[in-house]
Amino acid sequence: MISRTRPPGRTRLRTLTISGTAAIVAALVVSLLPNLAQAAETTLGAAAAQSGRYFGAAVAANKLSDSAYTTILNREFNAVTPENEMKIDATEPQQNNFTFSNADRIVNHALSRGWKVRGHTLAWYSQQPGWMQSMEGTALRNAMLNHINRVAGYYRGKIYSWDVVNEAFEDGNSGARRNSNLQRTGNDWIEAAFRAADAADPDAKLCYNDYNTDNWTWAKTQAVYNMVRDFKSRGVPIDCVGFQSHFNPNSPYNSNYRTTLSSFAALGVDVQITELDIEGSGTTQANTYRNVVNDCLAVARCNGLTVWGVRDCDSWRSSGTPLLFECNGTKKAAYTATLEALNSTGPGPTPTPTTPTPTPTTPPGSASEIVGAQSGRCIDVPNASRTNGTRVQLYDCNRQTNQSWTYTSGKQLQVYGSMCLDAAGSGNGAAVQIYSCHSQTNQQWNINSNGTITGVQSGRCLDVWSTTNGAQVQLYDCNGQANQQFRLASLT
Ligand code: G3I
Questions:
Q1: Alpha-carbon distance 482 to 209, whole Å?
Q2: What distances in angstroms separate CA 70 from CA 74, 464, 490, one per listed residue?
Q3: Average pLDDT of the residues in 162-178
Q4: Quick check: CB of 277 below 6 Å from ligand 1?
Q5: What's the confidence (pLDDT) of residue 106?
Q6: What pLDDT sits at residue 420?
Q7: Residue-level pLDDT at 468
Q8: 210 C-beta closer than 6 A to ligand 1
Q9: For residue 1, what pLDDT is reported?
């Protein structure tokens, strides 16, 4: 995991220094945008790199000797995931006897070309070696931790992101954990796995990875979301969530996919599309690929996409022709749509939003509660925390100091006199938190006559995804809907 421990009091300074540098770089990059936008890239990896993203493929070690395969792989992609070679049965076939030769072939192929490697996967109910399948309890928990320590330790420093835990939730409407021998070692097995991976490879992004978590309304999606939110609130070292995104008639792409990606990102994790394949053909398939790419591009924290194989006949579901190349290497309509979508964005993942005209409705200087129009609930600092970086939420209005906001002439929304409502970023899904007041624009807000509150730096609206107690507040493109409307009600 990246930057897991930050010395209090120094974080903001470092963030500001970095963001100052980033602003200069961004300004330079934006000035180059028209030229780059015209010069469309001709391969998937290069096109994705324009916005700082990667485009990867699942790779099988035994195909690296097939020149038709490697010709496409080497030309088009800049990231890989070993399809089976890093799984538990492959890397620890007998207990404490580790083999990495097949995985190493893929890792070396990638690293020698400067590509990223996604590690897949350290803890999973499936593809366990026989000795592990028959284990339970403490012996299994210890074996899992040892496996993570040894495998993540062996690849320490080489892996961009690890799928630390794979597929730990049930399908269907229960939202429950999947019953497995790992689950039976205790409900904390997932966080134990993340802590072990964190210790073994502190620089890798640590991901939870699953399928059927793409549709925002599905119970499994919500269950994983709640787990990630809980992990973030308790400091469990999780950096990212992988969305496998195997789309087919039983699990079709839904236009709320973007909401899913941005909602997870708003929890403070990166999101990655990790095993993309879309069954079908022709224009329909191409349009779905286009939508998926556009959804990733619309979410600043979507790091990149990986397709689960190179050609249709390399796919685990080859009969569904779900990939971007035909078996003979011909580019499909899905390829063209994917490339066009990747090329449609210039450098910088997030478009600049427009800022509505501000009309303050509350005189500066008086304390108010900020009430959500849809929920009737107030913007609240959880547990009256005074810790920098505490995310604000909706909660039943209580007129206490942790819901008492003073709008200043400098456009700050102050709480406790010395802390300010602060945007942790400027993109869609950026967390809204409290932080020691300073003079930067990420702590300045316009309170608009249309009921929205917009960030001066981002131009985006304060936004909540639900109306319940604990619903987190984030930035999002202003959309005119009730979940972005608030009123300041005087407390004096
Ligand atoms: O290599 C042996 C071969 O020697 C043997 O003759 C043959 C007999 O069936 O099996 C071959 O191994 C197969 C292996 O793929 C390599 O082709 C396994 O049986 C087969 O089970 C295995 O399937 C893999 C599957 O995970 C196992 O769960 C797929 O390749 C792989 O694409 C798939 O990947 C998973 C992700 O890890 C997690 N998300 C879902 C995704 C698709 O199921």
A1: 32
A2: 6, 46, 66
A3: 98
A4: no
A5: 98
A6: 95
A7: 87
A8: no
A9: 63
Residue nearest to atom 16 of ligand 1 (CA): 84
Q: How confident is the model at residue 179 (pLDDT cuts 50, 70, 90)?
A: very high
Q: Answer yes or no: is the C-beta of 83 below 6 A from any ligand 1 atom.
A: yes
In the chain, what's the furthest Cα-to-Cα distance? 75
Single pTM value for the model? 0.70
Q: Nearest to residue 436, comparing CAs of 453, 405, 455, 415?
A: 415
84 CB within 6 A, ligand 1: yes
Percent of the chain with pLDDT over 90: 75
Residue 301 amino acid letter: R
Q: Measure 83 CA to ligand 1 centroid, in angstroms.
A: 8
- Probe target for ligand 1 pocket from 81, 84, 276, with the most ligand atoms within 8 Å of CB: 84
Q: Whose CA is nearest to atom 35 of ligand 1?
A: 83
Q: Where does the pLDDT of residue 260 fall: very low under 50, low under 70, confident under 90, or very high at 90 and above? A: very high
pLDDT tens digits for range 210-226 = 999 999 999 999 999 99
Active site residues per annotation: 167, 275
Tell me the best of 83, 122, 211 to mutate to test the pocket of ligand 1, counting ligand atoms within 8 Å of each CB and taking the most: 83
Residue 275 CB less than 6 A away from ligand 1: yes
What pLDDT, on the 0 to 100 scale, is given for residue 384? 92
